[in-house]
Amino acid sequence: MRELTIAVYLLCLVAALALELLARRPRRDPEQPRRLSALGAMLDALLARRAPRIALIVFWWWLGWHFLVVRTVDPPLG
Amino acid sequence: MAAQPSERTGRRAGLRAALVAVLWVAVLGIIATVQLVREVPVDAAVFAIAAAVLLLDAAGLLPATPARRRIPRTVLLGAGLVGAALLALAPRHGVAAGVLVAGMGIAVAALAWPDPPAPEPLRDPRPLRRAMAAWGPVVVVLGLSQLASWLLGRPTAETKLAHPAVSELLDPLLDHPLGQALFAAAWVAAGIGLLTRGGPR
Questions:
Q1: Predicted complex ipTM
Q2: Distance of residue B75 Cα from the nearest chain A Cα, in angstroms
Q3: How many distinct structural domains can be found in chain B?
């Protein structure tokens, strides 16, 4: 089961990398518009609005808080 | 009298902005609830406060903010380097790390609150829509698998081993000084990225 759980995480990572590579692959005709925006362009669009910008900043902050400051691993109940 | 086209466009844009805000408030609310179930009240409170502030802002109940001031890149880079170095050296789970992370979080949120200048309208928004439609499921699957691992792994040490959360997999790496330094650098760089992106490029 552990392997399956880790495989799901790796699958998400591979999917993210594949999407970014797909968005950045060189086009045969540079004049032709891209079919998919890259992560940076997507972030630019999200961060232009306050609600997603602040939500992403709070999540970013929480990652630092979770991994560097407070309990990172929850203890089991039993 | 019928509304003028520009009025209608403005109203539609306002409605869309309110819908986007409500969607992100809901996301923050869900994360706050999960943190509450995890029995980490400080984490839950931060997400809940952010959701409440954004809701007040979307309802127009907060005072208008002045335009965002541009921070010179050298200042950001210098502050980032100092911050990352201090975070890399601060003992993990210690008071100094807590003060640094809290301080940087407050600073980034305060600096990012005013809206950047509006970006140029996209000539073709379809690539962006496709990217959001493609990235959305990846983020949702990762989030749900995290939640499932946490719930299934909760009862005993054996179930925890069988259903590790990403935090449990990364935790041993961060215990190493090099792992902590790399995480600190990546975290600070991401914070600077969140501050500098979003406006016209």
A1: 0.92
A2: 20
A3: 2
